[in-house]
Amino acid sequence: MADDLILEIVTPEKMVFSEKVEEVTLPGTEGEFGVLRGHASLLSSIEIGEMNLTREGKKSFYALNTGYVEVTSGKVTVLVESAERSDMIDKDRAQRAKDLAENNLARIAKEDADFEVMRAALLRAITRLKVADRS
User: What does DSSP assign to residue 71?
Assistant: First the structure.
């Protein structure tokens, strides 16, 4: 048990994933980082991006929204607004979201209060499309 690394992915709605993994790579706000068994404890914020994990020698990919991660020697707890596994992403919906965000961004100035909201929506849609292609 001491050699196990448990990964939990939690959103406000549900526990998305809770199993043993060999490794996990996360999109931290200071850059991507990987976690293996015995990793030093840390707390980090998570950016919109791709997370991958290896379980039983097989990689899985998730599109993450913003949140936080806590790493201890035997557990990684990812608390994010949303997490979607690559094979569960609706590509048509993600493409429509990308198109809408691009259109909205083209119509507003960078100084507009909604600019960052639209930029984040675009980044989420692009991430979802990229991750969906990994299934």
Answer: E
